[in-house]
# Entry
Amino acid sequence: MSTACAIDFGTSNSAIALPQLGSGDSGPDEVHLVALEAGQRTMPTAVFYAVEGLRGHELPQRHYGRAAVAAYVEGIEGRLMRSMKSILGSTLAEQATDVGGGHSVRYLDVVSGYLRHLKSLAEAEAGVALTQVVLGRPVFFVDDDPERDAAAQAALTRAARAVGFSEIRFQFEPIAAALDYEAGIDREQLVLVADIGGGTSDFSLLRVGPARRGRLDRSDDILANHGVHIAGTDFDRHIELAAILPACGYRGVGPNGREVPSKVYFDLATWHLINTVYSPARQAELAGMKGFYADLVQHAGLMQVVRQRQGHALIAKAESAKIALAEGGAAQIDLSAIAAGLSQRLDEAPTLAALEADMAQIVAAADATLAQAGLARERVDALYFTGGSTGLRPLARRIAGRFPNARPVFGDRFASVAKGLGRQARMAFG
Ligand SMILES: Nc1ncnc2c1ncn2[C@@H]1O[C@H](COP(=O)(O)OP(=O)(O)OP(=O)(O)O)[C@@H](O)[C@H]1O
Ligand SMILES: [Mg+2]
# Structure
């Protein structure tokens, strides 16, 4: 019985695969993705620490994935943790953060708790203790900083060891996606993988084909790897800044015509900084800034958001509107969290304008991948799109436009990386 598994620990969603042959959903060669909640093969990378009704020395109760998000939405007292992958390379990873009720947790312990949850679900299915793991990693956890990037991988390694994995290997997420693509092709080709997720946009250029499948060492086939730390959560932030936060004063002006200080809006639009805005000292400071606002309705809206702790809810609104727009061309955002009856329409053109800088950097990263390989763009035979943010078709079209001879292929947006990591685990651990 194999004791190996593979984990795609994503910024927004995660999955765990069991690589053994013969256990697949759709054929003997398939990798099996463990059902995580209600039959779903991927789960939000979210942990909720519930502190409501705790007595004496009781520790906060943890909820994971959709249950974590649901506990948060229901208004249970406690703290929702998301985007934990983004803090791996920072000093925050070793720091503790307050979850309410006098309790605090170390960020890295949030990560290991989440990994332990995935592992135990997989072990329940496998019927054995899993001790070997292939973990996915972005091409860069941290852009332009090799030291912090190495620190991020080391932190993830510590979290994996803490939950009982003794053999730990890493594979780049886009290469894993390429292995998944390769499983379904019958001709050798040059593929550019574009994995555009929640935290990073990663590109790998690989030679793939039936004759190469199954080789453990693919270093000769990997022609280039590149990525940027810009993806879906940045889109959410920029949509929130463009379409939601102006209603509570972002880019507003004061009586003297000066722009109001913008730091609070950037903090509100960034997952792991939201809680800093709720501290009593910060609330008092913000209340005292009323005089900076020409439009007092904006200041009242800001104070409403801060006092009612609506920061996470507003990011979630930006994200839902983004997905609705990607799927339907426009969306309506309910802003009653800022002021009763308020709402804002989100249209494609201004949204794409708000995302222009992000998209341009992602397209530039695709170009840089080809430059790294020293190959002409015309040489690419196929473009394999994976990751949730490839649902934003104008972005995918823009990338496709750079590679005139490449056939665009849309993979399993949320599962390709986990399946490819599972194949890697099968090859690495037998
Ligand atoms: N239909 C859609 N259109 C656009 N974006 C979408 C759509 N569906 C989901 N997303 C976005 O996809 C992102 C999540 O994608 P995914 O699960 O691939 O990321 P991840 O693997 O967790 O992140 P990463 O690989 O960067 O660590 C989120 O930002 C989400 O808002
Ligand atoms: Mg991913």
User: Anything to note?
Assistant: Residues 187-230+357-410 form a domain with the Nucleotidyltransferase; domain 5 fold (CATH 3.30.420.40).
